[in-house]
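Many introductory courses stop at the sequence. We go one step further.
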Amino acid sequence: MTFEEKLERLNNIVEQLEAGDALTLDASLTLFEEGITLVRDCRQMLASAELRVQNVLEQDPQVEP
């Protein structure tokens, strides 16, 4: 899954949890757990992207961050 796909799924989960319509406790917990996993994945992907940007900037001192 791409970052954008994960973020879209996370937004969908948030909408479902906020609406709360016809969600059982188990379904809510399952969505919550999936959401937490997606948040962790997105944070990791962002950290990796930030590291790549830093590496590129370090290779070319003429480019300012």
